[in-house]
Amino acid sequence: MTNRADLIQAFLARTPWSGARRQPLAGDASNRRYERLTDPETGGTVVLMDAPPDKGEDVRPFVKVARYLHSIGLSAPEILAEDAEHGFLLLEDFGDDLFARVLERAPEKERALYDAATDVLVHLHAAPLPALDSYDPSLMTELSALAFTKYAEGILGTHDADARARFEHRFADILHQETSGTRVVTLRDYHAENLIWLPDRDGVRRVGLLDFQCAMLCHPAYDLVSLLQDVRRAVPAGVEMQMIQRYIAASGVDDHDFRTAYSVLGVQRNLRILGVFARLAMDYGKPHYIDLIPATWAHLMRDLEHPALISVADLLREALPEPTPENLARLRGA
Predict the structure, then answer these.
(1) Confidence of residue 333 (pLDDT cuts 50, 70, 90)
(2) How buried is 206 (Cβ within 10 angstroms: 0-12 exposed, 13-18 middle, 19+ buried)?
C-alpha cells in the first residue's frame, strides 16, 4: 500500500510546489496535520493540509465552506490545489498572526481585533444561506450530555443516568424555546486561536478565518459565545459586554432574546467542551486539554446564573463534579 509520504509527494508533484522546503505547523484537536511550504527561490509560502480519510477526515466540507466565505467577501484561505480522494489541500498562507499571538505582544489592540471579529459575524449573518446541516436542539442536547458520559464518568467512574435523562429532557425544551427562529452560518470554533489578523486588508477581510469545516446553521449568538467565552484566552468582561452590545446594535436583533440565547448557548457549548476535552485526554492521549477545563467550568457556572437555565442549573451543579486538582488528575490518568 502506498504510504502517506509518497501520496504527499505525488500530490505536490502536480503543483508548482514540488521542490518547496517543508516545515511542520501546529495542529489542532483533529487528525489533520499542517505544513508550511516555502519556495526556495521566491520565498513565497503556502500551507499543506494533510487530512487522512482513513482516520475519519474529509477535506470536502472545508472546501465547500471556504468557497462560500470567499463568495460573500470574507477572508478564508484560497484553495490552490486539492486532492479530496487522498485528503490533501494546498492553501493560501495567512501567516502567523493569530489573534491570540497579536494580543500577547500588543494588548492595546484588543478592542480593535474584537470589534473586527464581531463585525465579521454581523456580515456573515446577513449573507444568503448555503446548504448546511442544522445544529438543532436535538443535536445540541445530545452533545451537551458528553459532560455526563465523558467528563463526569471520567472522574467518578460512572455517571447519574437518571440525572442525565432529566437534564436532556429539560434542556431540549430550553433550547427549543430560547434558540429557535433565525438560523445563520455558524463556524462553531470561532475564537482567538482560529482567527488571523490581516491588517493590510480592508474591513471584515482583515480577519482571516480558519478551522470552519464543521460549520452548520444555528442561532446567531453561537459564534459570539465561541469568541467571547474563549477557554484558551480570558476575554475581559468589559470587552465581552461591549461586543455583545456591538453585535445587537449592528444586527438589530432583540436585546433581551439575544442575551438569553447567548447564556443558553454558553451552557450548551461549555458542557460539550467539558466532555470533548475529557474524551481527548482519556481516549486520544491528549492530556493538555485538561488544563482548559477550569476556564470552561467557570464560563458554565456563570451562564447557569441566567433565569432561563433555572430548571437545569441545580441539577448540573449536583451531577457534575467540580474540576478540583484531584478530579483533573483522575482525567489525566484515566
Answers:
(1) confident
(2) buried
Rg of the chain over all Cα atoms, to the nearest angstrom: 21
Q: How many domains does the chain have?
A: 2
Q: Are residues 107 and 232 in the same domain?
A: yes
Neighbours of 332 (CB within 10 A): 14
Are residues 277 and 177 part of one domain?
yes
Q: In the prediction, which pLDDT does 27 show?
A: 65
Find where cell 485526554 sits. Answer: 281
> Measured between alpha carbons, how far is 237 from 260 in angstroms, rounded to an integer?
17
Q: Tell me the pTM.
A: 0.94
pLDDT number for residue 29: 57
The whole domain housing 47 covers 4-92
Neighbours of 103 (CB within 10 A): 18
Residues 85-90 have a mean pLDDT of 96
Rounded to 5°, angle at Cα 113 from 107 and 116? 170
Rounded Cα–Cα distance for residues 58 and 50 (Å): 10
